[in-house]
Amino acid sequence: MRSAIRQRSPAELAAGYTRAHRVLETTAIVLFAALLALLAVRTAGALWQARWTFLLALVAAMIVADLLSGLVHWGADTWGTVETPLLGGSLIRSFREHHVDPKSITHHDFIEANGNSCLVLLPAVGLALVLPISTAAPWGLFAATFLGILCFFLAATNEIHKRAHQDAPPSLFRALQWMHVILPATIHDIHHQSPFARYYCITTGWLNAPLTAIGFFATLETLIARVTGAIPRHDDIGHEAALELATSLGIVSPAAPAASRPLRPSE
Q1: Cα gap 197→195, rounded to integer Å
Q2: pLDDT in tens, 137-166
Q3: CB under 8 Å to 231, separation ≥6 — which residues?
Q4: Which of 65, 150, 227, 252 would staple 203 via disulfide (CB 3.0–4.6 Å)?
């Protein structure tokens, strides 16, 4: 199967990162940090009196962040192209570059690694800031705290992902990986093993094993393929390899190749 895989060159994908987009990312990081700091200040007093609210929000946010990181990673790996409007030039392009050269992420600086995440999360932080934050409004306090922690971990996901690919990450990241608070390299390495279609969660990595055990992403791919006729990973690895992989995983039936392959001009 590997011989059939056809991917774009790393240089072509890396060239999609423009100066204008870097300015946008820098602005997004500054705004995100300012809003998150404001939220922390607003919730600190109430949370000091309701510490269980913080602990429950922390655990819930870390689980949801891992799930969302997996859904985004799976979506960018599996569907669309680098030309897809809005998402193609940033989200999809970066994941496709990562697949061609997994170590490339370790060379991305803080802005390139985290700017897109901060940009997407700005509305969620803004929502958290308008919620009622006081011990008199426990659900508002929980929701604001949950959203704040969720946004923090989602914004940090690419940095966590980056450290999972480093040969010698900083000691803090190494300790958190060892405690499985954030994604360990040993867990993420499974995603980069054939058939490259599992272990998508890249924040804590807690959900990778259970989601794989129940076939969560394979089921989603099967439903989408049946409804739309699209072949997962068609653009990423080429039609022939994507169709062979989808057939081997049971996502499309063995009879699908002839009907699903694109027609040549002569046909």
Answers
A1: 5
A2: 899 999 999 999 999 999 999 999 999 999
A3: 225, 239, 242, 243, 246, 252, 260
A4: 65
